[in-house]
Amino acid sequence: MAISGRTWKYGDHVNTDVIFPGKYTYTISDPDEMGPHALEDLDPEFAGNVKPGDVVVGGKNFGCGSSREQAPQSIKSAGAGAIIARGFARIFYRNCINIGLPALVCPEAVDAIEHGDSISVDLDAGTIEVKGKKFSFPPFEGYAKMIIDNGGLIPHTRKVLGIDT
């Protein structure tokens, strides 16, 4: 699967409260309503300008803070196709996989990427291309790959069980 768009670059320790503001935690439950609030406390321009396939880029410990699933869901619902970071908070990373949002660890790419760069990500090959350079990351395998390929854990489970959506 290939993802291409432009980059939205942020720093280290971007926490779940700035990814999806806590004030919406108990008032918004529809994923489609989460997208317009993605990153609003960090970058008010993101949700209104992100395009399908754009890639969020972060530093180390991206997604630290509370374990709310709304944080990665808001990024996905806004239209981003993937997140690349130097590293992720453990629960945030797993929540990304569960909703079918590729979370990629590639410090070398993060170092090379600037905000607004054109980017192409090949999930199957494990490559990121930006500014004429190619970077490698470990591609998803096994269940994680199946979950990502099927759009998340719930669609994957429905497919495996033969349940119509």
CATH class: Alpha Beta
Number of strands: 7
Please tell me the total number of domains. Answer: 1
Oligomeric state:
single chain
**What summary fits the major beta sheet?**
7 strands, mixed
The whole-number mean of residue pLDDT values reads 96
Tally the helices: what do you get? 8
Strand content: 15-25%
- The helicity comes to 25-40%
Terminal Cα span: 22 Å
SSE layout and pairings?
Elements: E1 2-9, H1 16-19, H2 31-34, H3 46-49, E2 55-58, H4 70-78, E3 82-85, H5 90-99, E4 103-105, H6 107-112, E5 118-122, E6 127-130, E7 133-136, H7 142-149, H8 153-161
Parallel strand pairs: 1-2, 2-3, 3-4
Antiparallel strand pairs: 1-5, 5-6, 6-7
Helix pairs in contact: 4-5, 7-8
Keywords:
165 residues, seven-stranded mixed sheet, 7 strands, Aconitase, domain 4, alpha/beta, globular
Describe the structure.
There is one protein chain. With 165 residues, the chain is α/β, with parallel strands linked by helices. The protein has one domain: Aconitase, domain 4, CATH 3.20.19.10. It is built from eight helices and seven strands, in the order βαααβαβαβαβββαα. The protein has helices spanning 16-19, 31-34, 46-49, 70-78, 90-99, 107-112, 142-149, 153-161; strands at residues 2-9, 55-58, 82-85, 103-105, 118-122, 127-130, 133-136. A seven-stranded mixed sheet has the order 4-3-2-1-5-6-7. A hairpin with a 4-residue loop joins β5 and β6. α4 (70-78) packs across α5 (90-99) and α7 packs across α8. The radius of gyration is 15 Å and the shape is globular. The mean pLDDT is 96.
